[in-house]
Every structure is written in structure tokens, then in C-alpha cells.
Amino acid sequence: MRWTVHGERDLYRDQWVHVASADVELPDGRHLDHRVIRTAAPGAGIVIVDKDRVLLMWRHRFITDTYGWEIPHGSIKPGEEPADAAVREAEEETGWRPTGPIRPLIYTQPSPGLMTSEHHIFRADSATHIGPPKDAFESDKVEWVPVEEISSLIEKRHIVAGTTLVALLYLQAGS
Questions:
Q1: HEC profile for the chain?
Q2: pTM for this one?
Q3: Which domains are delineated in the chain?
Q4: pLDDT at residue 20, as a whole number
């Protein structure tokens, strides 16, 4: 059932995010004052697999005050192709350059009931170490984690970020 949007008003806007209030009519005629978060740019990330290991970053997220393993991921710059953004983010955040064919793994909208965020996730089957991460502030450590440990890390809540979960579970499903 399709909801009808009768209008929106801005609540907040900056270079990263636009928050609006939407007057939404439900199929039964009721109206909601629903919040909408529009992100400035789509994101791109990459799962780099090498010898049954995946390259992950151990990160602190101040919003939830939690630590967890994540794949390299970030915003796509204007005019940049999603695959190129994924490679750039991997280099900047990990110091590893994905090599070989870079191919699409999965596309996800992490929270479509609230925000417009969309993530293009790619896969590479090898990488070359090019030096320390340019964006060393992104994580405490970068490690090659055995793919066989992913389920255990999820159970321990060491992998909780939605896009990382989607990408790694899809990888495990045999993509």
C-alpha cells in the first residue's frame, strides 16, 4: 500500500544531511508527521577477500559509543563512480589497494523507513599494501579476519554495522 506525501518542511540542513518533516497520509486516511533524513551522497564500500580472509577495520562509533569490525566504506564524491569510491575509501581507511577485478557485491538501503541512504558494495579478491592508512583516525586497527570467524563475531556483537552485516552475510551465503 502506497503512502501519499502531501508536503514537507525543512527542519535542518547542512552539507551532510537534510532533515525534513513530511505530512504523510496512510491508506486508511490517517495523517502522520513523519521525519525524513536525506543524505547528501550515496556511499560505497568494499569487501576485500584474500585466502579466506576479509579485510576489516576495528572502529569506535561515538554515536552509540561502541566498537566493532567494519568494511571500508564512505561517501561517493560528485562525478565519482561507485566502484572508484569504494577503492579510494579502502586505500584511505586501510592502506590496502584492492586489486584484480572490482565487481558489484550488493546494493543496500540501510534504513529506508527513515532515510534515503544507499550503499553500493563491491568485492575484490586481492589487495596490495601501499602503506599506512591516510585516514588513520578511522580505526584503531586494520586486520585480515578469517571468513570462518564472521558468524562468531556477529554473535559476540563485534560486527553490528548494518552495511557490514549485509555485505559479510551475503559473502558467506556464497555470492
A1: CCCEEEEEEEEEECCCEEEEEEEEECCCCCEEEEEEEEECCCEEEEEEEECCEEEEEEEEECCCCEEEEECCEEECCCCCCHHHHHHHHHHHHHCEEEECCCEEEEEECCCCCCECCCEEEEEECEEEECCCCCCHHHCCEEEEEEHHHHHHHHHCCCCCCHHHHHHHHHHHCCC
A2: 0.90
A3: 4-39 (no CATH), 43-172 (3.90.79.10)
A4: 96
